[in-house]
Design goal:
The chain is α+β, with helices and mostly antiparallel strands and 490 residues long. The chain has 9 helices and 19 strands. The strands form 4 sheets. Strands 10, 11, 12, 13, 14, 15, 16 and 19 form an 8-stranded antiparallel sheet that branches.
Length: 490
Amino acid sequence: MSSVEVPSVGDLLAERYRLEEHVGGAGGHRQLWRGTDILLHRNVAVVLRSPGGEDAAETLTAAVAASRAQADSMVDVYDAVDEDRFAYVVREWVSGSSLRHVLARRPLAPTHALELVASVADATTALHEGGVTHGDLHPGSVLLSEDDRVMVTEPRNEPGHTRVGDVRALGATLYACLTGTWPAIVPAEDVGLPDAPLDDWGRPLEAAAVVPNVPASLSRLTSDLLDAAEAPPSAAELAVELRRLAGSGGAGPLDAIGGPDRGAEAPPAGMKRLAIIAATVAVVVFTGVVTSALVWGGGEDDSGADTSLGLTGDGAANEDKSPSDSESEVAAPAEVELTLDDVRVVDPPEGDRNELEGIEAVVDGNASTGWSTNTYYNRSNFGNLKPGMGILIDLGDEEEVASVRVQMTSAGATVGLLSGDEDPGDSSDGDQAIVDSFSTLAEPVEDADTNLELQAGGESTRYVVVWITDLPPVSDGYKITISDIKVFVR
């Protein structure tokens, strides 16, 4: 790695993690990078802190706890390294968007807000049980993945962070989900949402006063979570209560929360009890809430609150990147819908073109089916009979290709990407023209894993070829079966 204190694109950490793109934390002691694990050929997020040593000890301790956390909503932490000048945490790269970007468009419907924050509370609980705090919970540190997961980024666990502070931040995140604003009484860096409006006492207005469709009891509960005069529940207790309320559409009897009306001319301290531990809330169906499950597609209710997380269309995935150093995965590339008409086998003239059948299986969405080559003997490079084989993909129009994901049934192949402006034809001559004229879109990966994502860097092209030059071993020779191909464009 470079001897200077600021990392650069291309630097290799721990002889394994190559820095590809700086995505957050410019100029600060904490930076966020998109990287590549060159051993496993996968994208990773690298959270780099400068300096390392004692200053980074709490962060690394938290990373270890996060790696052991038993919560589906906690990002997977792969590695934590202290190189003295730098310390860095390597975690999974989540393709998708942030909660911040969704809320910048509109608030969530109450039931969706409850389900989402309950998932965040699950991750927080796992960290607390591991002996650390998170210390950075807000809509920018909650990621919404392409495969419908709510994911909490790695904890900071810096001095001064407490479990109570984490639970207050969960309440603030719930408030943000319901209103699209952030209660400034809970400090957080780079939240990226407007400050919540205040009442005459300088407190955030109840959520129901900001967005009328929020049930009164849920609104009061959220305010209680933000009230320093109220002893909060544990993160685990909060997760249970939020899910119970989600089952009732977020509504409950008004007297279940207790305490004065937030619009009344009286100070709140000591005058309320927190219903989420003691109150028995009767089920009241809240009209307008369409489901209590976390749904990624759908429409809007009449009030304008989002009845889905809305990760399609002109929404969060297409917005500019935020400068936050805790939000790495924004502007997610879109998957191209491929059909049989869009793909064909490329087999140069040295081949006998008897391996063309079954290509529809790479775009049928069924991982149990696939296209296979013949079995080759003696040598893994197609028996030294031809330069390779491939699958041509027609994108219909010129597109900026971000990446191509290839799923194979066996590891050990050498696979890369080629690109060209036109298909020279489904024939031996046409396939030879592809070998001769197409350019390299992604360098070949040797000894590839069964799930491979090849980065194309946004280069514009209409035709992409998944190009195989070396086959993985099977019981009696060398052969490959490709079960799925997905193309993502910007």
